[in-house]
Amino acid sequence: MRSLTNMNQEKISSLRFSVIKSLFSISFKEILHSRLFFIYILTFSLLALGFGYAGVKQGLYGYKGFGKFMATLINISIILVPLFSILPSSLSIAGARENLSFEYIFSFPLSRSEYFCSNFLSSFVANIIPPTIVFPLVSLFIRPSSEDFLNFIIILVFILALSFVFVSLGILISSFAPSKSSAIALAIVLWFIFTIGGEIGILGVIQTSNLPNFIFFLFVFLNPTEIFRVSTISLFSQSLDILGPFGMYIYSILGKWLIPFSFFAMIFIGFSILSLSFFIFKFKSFKM
Questions:
Q1: Could you report the per-residue pLDDT of 15-65, keeping only the tens digit for each?
Q2: Which of 94, 214, 222, 255 is most buried (CB neighbours < 10 A)?
Q3: Quick one: average pLDDT of 134-162?
Q4: Do 55 and 69 meet the contact criterion of CB atoms below 8 Å apart?
């Protein structure tokens, strides 16, 4: 059987946005009609809107009430956004390889770069739809003040950045996973490590007082979910004293630059993973 390295797409040297647009449209529609997307938007909407409505009914208002609600929404996002970002994207390329549509797709004059870009863009755009729709709806319930609304927007931006990182991670998995089942298994393992395992690791570092402070710093800023957690917590506890001496150590280093540093750290991690994914997909020989 021939390898995809000799197919027509290798003869194409430049990206054609018309091709990317066509592939994006096809892939995007498939994602929108998938069960995972339906479960994601339904779960995220019900939880976010439900807690927002409950807060209004219980008379929560002002900074304290807003902080409690946003803390709940942050915890929801830490679990749901990485899970529903990494799972569908991990199936994008691996699924096409397993159902034997790969050779048919590349019988057309398109490059691997065009196929890769369309898959990433469709996965990312689909995954940011639920938070970008739900957050404005939630704001109608809680009616935040101007200061709270700014924090609201910052949290939404960090959610989009978190989705970017985990979609990139899912694309990386899909680039080398031999089957859909192995892609799903690896995606779930990595999701657990970065979310549940990351928090356990942070607590372990905090409890082990003899470790240097920079170890805690590395634990936080090498894990996108912990970057998200710390940066959003800083909106309501600026000095990070809620995290104890290690939190105050981070604040002593970054201070007012914590939010921009955290955002660019997440973008850097996402682009690094995405670049590695592209390199693997571009040069790997896929046997059909």
A1: 678 888 888 888 888 888 888 899 999 998 888 877 766 655 555 544 455
A2: 94
A3: 83
A4: yes
The reported pTM is 0.86
Rounded Cα distance, 171 and 151, in Å: 30
- 57: number of CA atoms within 13 Å, CB side? 6
Its sign, for the CA torsion 188, 286, 92, 160, is positive
Check: CB of residue 160 under 8 Å from CB of residue 168. no
CA atoms within 13 A on the CB side of 22: 9
d(CA 251, CA 34): 42
pLDDT digit string (tens) for 177-196? 888 889 999 999 999 999 88
- Closest alpha carbon to 126 in 29, 48, 191: 29
Each domain of the chain, given as residue ranges in start order, spans 4-283
CA nearest neighbour of 252 among 229, 227, 234, 226? 234
AA letter at 258: L
SS in 3 state form for the chain?
Answer: CCEHHHCHHHHCCCCCHHHHHHHHHHHHHHHHCCHHHHHHHHHHHHHHHHHHHHHHHCCCCHHHHHHHHHHHHHHHHHHHHHHHHHHHHHHHHHHHHHCCCHHHHCCCCCCHHHHHHHHHHHHHHHHHHHHHHHHHHHHHHHCCCHHHHHHHHHHHHHHHHHHHHHHHHHHHHHHHCCCHHHHHHHHHHHHHHHHHHHHHHHHHHHHCCCCCHHHHHHHHHCCHHHHHHHHHHCCCCCCCHHHHHHHHHHHHHHHHHHHHHHHHHHHHHHHHHHHHHHHHHHHCCCEC
The Cβ of residue 85 has, within 10 Å, a number of other Cβ atoms equal to 27
Residue 136 CB: number of other CB atoms within 10 A?
A: 11
